[in-house]
Design a protein that fits this description.
- The chain is of the alpha/beta class and about 425 residues long.
- It has 2 domains: about 180 residues, Rossmann fold (3-Layer(aba) Sandwich); about 190 residues, 3-Layer(aba) Sandwich (Rossmann fold), CATH 3.40.50.
- About 40% of the residues lie in helices and about 15% in strands.
- The chain is built from 14 helices and 13 strands.
- Helix 8 runs parallel beside helix 11 and helix 11 packs across helix 12.
- The structure holds uridine-5'-diphosphate-xylopyranose (UDX).
Length: about 425
Amino acid sequence: MKFGIIGLGYVGLATLCGLAKAGHEVIGVEKDQPRLLRLMNGDVPFHEPGMADVLRDHHGSITFTDSIADTETADYLVLAVGTPSKQDGSCDLTFVDAALSEVNSKHKIIIRSTVLPGTTDMLSVMYPAHTFAVVPEFLQEGRALADVLKPHRVVIGSDNLEMCEELAGIYGRLGVPIVCTSPIDAEFIKYASNAFLATKISFINDLARLADKAGADITTIADGMGLDPRIGRSFLNAGLGYGGSCFPKDMHALLNVASENELDLPVIRAAMHANDAQMAYVASKVEPTSDLKVAFLGLAFKPGTDDMRDAPSLTLAQLLTVRGVDVIGYDPLAKWDFPQAETVEAALEGADVAILVTEWDELVALPPEAFDGMRTKRLIDARNAWKYARDPGTVQYEGVGRMQNKENTPSSM
Ligand code: UDX
C-alpha cells in the first residue's frame, strides 16, 4: 500500500518509519524546509533511537517532499501535523485545516494528530469529500519506534465501517489488541489515557511529600502498591512531576472541553495543581543563601530525549532564579537558555547543591567522588534514581519522599 504522511514531527516520522518497516511505500510531506532537507539526507531532526536506521534501510520505499499534491496517488493520507495548545487550553487546528484544504482529490484520511473529542466528526462535516478515521498514537519519546511497531493497543475511530475494517486488517498484522469505535470515543481514549497516567504520577507525588514528613520511603511504598495488578508499578515514580509535550497540554485541553460543557473535572484539576506543587516543593528544599550556586544534572523532560517542551527543569530553574539562586545545567543532549556546562564536572565545580533533575543513565551512575569539586557536597535526587543513595559516602543525600530511617525497616533487613 502507499501512504502519504503529512507532518514529520515525532508522531509523523515514527508513523512513517513504522509503515516503511512494515513494507509499505511512504511519502512524507514536511513544509519546514530545513527539517525537510535534513530528512532528505537521512538525518533525523531530533534524538530518537532507531529512526535513522529505518530511513537508511528503507530509503527505496521512502520519498520526502514539501508538496501535499505529491501524495495524490496514495491509498491513505495520514495527518500528523501539530495541534498546539491555545491560551485557553483548546487545540489550535490551523495546521490541520491548512493541510486538509490542500488535499484536492477524494482521499481516505487517518488523523494521527492529537485532536480534541469531536474534532474528527467536525472535520467530516467540513471536508465531506473525504472519509475519515482517527487512529491516536500512544508513543513515548525515546521508544517511539518500538511503540509504533508493537503498541499496547491500536484504537481506530471511524463511522465508516469499510475504513474501520481495512485499517483493522492493516494494523491486525501487528498482533496487538484492536479497538474499533466511534471517532469521539477514540479521541477520548487518547486524552483519558494520558490524563490517567499524569494523575497516577501526581498521586504518588502527593504521597511522597507526606512520606518525607512521616519518615517513610516512597519507592518502597510504590513497589509494594505496584505488586497489586489492579494498580501496577509503572508511572508510580515520585519525583519532580511530569512534563513533556503531551501530559501538561492534554490535561489543560481536557479541562477546557469540560468547561465548554459546563463541567468541572476536580480530579484532573487537582492532579495539575499537585504537579505544580511538586516542583515548588522540590525548589523549597533549596534554602537560598547569598551566592548560592545550584547545578542541575539533566535538563530534558525525561531521559533518552533532547526534548525541553514543558520540561520540569525550566520551572524549577525559574523558581530558584527568582529567589536569587545561580543555576547551571548539564545534559547529555538537551539545551536551554540558562547557563549550561559542557561536562558534569564543570557543572558541579564550586556548586553548593546538585539536583538530579533527569535520570539519564550516566547521571544516576555518578559515583560519590564525582561530587568532590562541589563547595558543599549536597545532592537532591529529584528522581529518586541515584544508584548510591544507600551508600552516599560523604555526599549529603536527599531524595523526594525518602526521609527514611532504612536501618530499621523490614525491607532492608
Ligand atoms: C506520554 C505518554 O506516555 C504517551 O503514551 C503519549 O503518547 C505521549 O505522552 P512522553 O511524553 O514521551 O509520553 O513521556 P512519558 O514517558 O510518559 O513521561 C511523561 C512525564 O512523566 C516525564 O516528565 C516523566 O519524567 C514523568 N514521569 C513518568 C514521572 O514523573 N513518573 C513516572 O513514574 C513516569
